[in-house]
Amino acid sequence: PPWDDPSLGELIVPADELQARIADLGAAIARHYADRPPLLVGVLKGACIFLSDLARAIGLPVEMDFMAISSYGSATRTSGVVRIVKDLDIDLTGRHVLIVEDIVDSGLTLSFLTRNLLARNPASLEVCALLVKEGLQATSLDLAYEGFRIPPEFVVGYGLDVAERFRNLPFICEYRGGDPAGLS
Ligand code: PRP
Ligand code: MN
Ligand code: MG
Hints:
Blueprint lengths: L7 E6 L1 H18 L6 E6 L3 H10 L5 E8 L12 E4 L9 E9 L3 H11 L5 E10 L11 E6 L4 E2 L15 E4 L9
Parallel strand pairs: 2-3, 2-5, 5-6, 6-7
Antiparallel strand pairs: 1-9, 3-4, 8-9
Helix pairs in contact: 1-2
The protein binds 1-O-pyrophosphono-5-O-phosphono-alpha-D-ribofuranose (PRP), manganese (II) ion (MN) and magnesium ion.
C-alpha cells in the first residue's frame, strides 16, 4: 500500500480521529447554516477528500463548487505566488459561502482566496480548515471552523500531497523528505 513508504514519518492524525472531528464540524456547520444552506467552495486539489467527507456530515442541502489554486507546485515550500488554475462556475452574489481548505500553512492561499471571493459580493464568507499549522501565518486569519492544530512539519495524506503523491492516505502523517518511492 502507498503508506509502506520510507519517506513517511510519524502519524499526526489517525483516520478515526479525522472522521470523528469531521462529524463534529459537520454538526456545527449544520447548526450555523440551518436557515441559509451554504455553498461549499472546495480548494482543489488538496481539499477534495476533506470536502467529500465534510459535505456528507452536514445534514443540510448544501451546494458545492470548486476552485483550483496552486502555490506549492511539486515543492515542499510555497512558491509565494498563488495561481488560480480553475475558477468557480457559480456566481457568489448573495450566497452564504463556506471555503473548505485542507490546510493553512503560510496562510498565503487563504488570504488570497478570501480577498478574491469577498470581491464577488457573497452574503457571507467563512472558512473551514481541517488543519492549521501552528505559528506560521504572517497575518492572523479568521477561521470559523478548524479541525486540528498541528506542529509546523510538512505533512501528507487525506488530500495533502508532495508532488501529487500520498493524497489517498486515509490519515495525516509527517513527510520525512527525500524522493518519494517510485519517483525519479
Ligand atoms: C496546499 C494546501 C493549501 C495550501 C496551504 O496547496 O492544499 O491549499 O498549500 O499553504 P499556504 O497556507 O502556505 O498557502 P498546493 O498549493 O500544494 O496545491 P494542491 O492543493 O493542489 O496540492
Ligand atoms: Mn491546496
Ligand atoms: Mg500540494
